[in-house]
């Protein structure tokens, strides 16, 4: 299911993300219009999608955020929002009031939380997040992006217990945003990240929280014991895939995923269905992976990759590597949108 | 009885003169709806619809379940807060209702699209200000080529269904202003062919019985031909590519705001494309 960006503005400046613009700097073009929201809803409905995922930047910065969620719910979409939890009291108050009676599966939130001990977070932001977690409570799945090897998850378990959050942690690994500067986990650090993650296995069990791995983890870096533990504690739902997820920007541009947001950027209006978009980007991904199978040399001959169980880790690592080479590879690898506001996508006649 | 529908105030004395005729009841309050419908029934008039024009946004209205079988054309100035409208939606979906919003604001054109995407029948109505024509054209594209089924949006739905290449199509019937179908009556029992003509005193000089034989009326026949006056001038509506579907509906503003020409010229192209697409692949069965 695709992600729809309501805005590219954000109130935070997470070190693993490039969306560093603040509200004051964003232009009116940076928010999704009602007309485009309705078009996207029609597009997804005609493609058989029933879940609408809202992202940003910080999606709650959109002036019509709550109204848009209401609209989508009335269209019988289930709405899932990715948020920092940092928002104005008025937006939060209205959100709590409007969606209080809904079952969590109709309206849910994934809150990407940064460790206040390791990521500089102003007090006002921390208080805003706590207010949000307190009010939205059982609708919230906490998310965490690993961008340094010495990460800690203790604060998440504390939040889950303190605020009654969903007993599930969505763990992502920060990948390079190709063409931008961000903090991310290098290939050589993946083993250390996995080891540290599994050092929390007793805590996951004790507090009865399930881990959920986001995309880009290569299966070969997990031991059989670790994979068995994951299977037991996620009901077999762990995946080792790599996109395309498909993000749709406020200007109706589409790209395969967050780290590849400048790669083969197209317009939603060029496609007739989500299937077409996914097929297009899968074709592009396959083309790139004929150049290099995955993160490791072994990926080229790996049977898990042949079987489609693992796709060799995040494509962004490979593409980031190519950027520093002489351009000797196939031309598809070099189709980057290098301007932040290149020719606006137009509706086909 | 005649074929014209009489648009009249919801006055019992007036209605008693209109027995057996189809009527559109003009109301300015929903509180009068039950009484007006009862009066029409009592008089033996056939209710085409109740045209209720209100001053409050849609979201602030109180709708009653007992009205769900009454055909209603509801005209409001704006949608209001979406959270309020969402609360009305379960009942709106059960009602036989079209919701009209003035097309002279971008917010209302967006509101029409929102309501239509929820399956509500809507009408873009004349407003007091200039129409944002780009947005109007955008709404037309949505109405004709939306990706999924949605509520009809007038006047586009009417034009798509009734446009014929070799004839003129008057969309103003969706506003009850098509002289071949509607005649307007004031509280004094005088007739004209639109609210504006009624207000300006351009009366047809007809009685209800004469309305039944309206085809015999010189005033009526002249009114049907009044569109020819546009062609006495070389410019403006006379040379507009969208004439066949507009018929000079915006001629009063066309000189100062000529973008209606682009809007209706483009709309005509879209309607022809829409009809061609609907005909494609359709097999015409032979007639016995």
What's the helix-strand series of chain B? EHEHEEHEHEHEHEEHHHHHH
- Report mean pLDDT of chain A, rounded to a whole number: 88
Question: Any idea what the radius of gyration of chain B is?
Answer: 20 Å
Given the C-alpha coordinates, what overall shape of chain A results? globular
Neighbour order of strands in the largest sheet of chain B: 7-6-5-4-3-2-1-8-9
Give a quick account of the main beta sheet of chain A: strands, pairing sense, barrel closure: 10 strands, mixed
Uncertain residue ranges of chain A: 338-349
> How does the helix and strand content of chain B classify structurally?
alpha/beta
Roughly what percent helix of chain A?
25-40%
Can you offer a commentary on this structure?
The complex is a heterodimer of chains A (349) and B (288). Chain A contains 11 helices and 10 strands. By secondary structure, chain A is of the alpha/beta class. In chain A, 33% of the residues lie in helices and 13% in strands. Chain A is globular, with a radius of gyration of 20 Å. Mean pLDDT of chain A is 88; it is low at 338-349. In chain A, helix 3 (89-99) packs parallel to helix 4 (123-136). Chain A has a 10-stranded mixed beta sheet with strand order 7-6-5-4-3-2-1-8-9-10. Chain B has 288 residues and is α/β, with parallel strands linked by helices. Helix content of chain B is 36%, strand content 15%. In chain B, strands 7-6-5-4-3-2-1-8-9 form a 9-stranded mixed beta sheet. Chain B starts with a strand and ends in a 9-residue tail after the last helix. Chain B has helices spanning 12-15, 33-43, 82-92, 106-117, 133-145, 156-162, 195-199, 208-212, 218-224, 243-246, 251-254, 260-279, and strands at 5-9, 22-27, 46-53, 72-75, 97-102, 121-125, 153-154, 182-185, 191-192. The chains are: A alpha/beta (349), B alpha/beta (288). At the A-B interface, helix 1 and helix 2 of A face helix 3 and helix 4 of B.
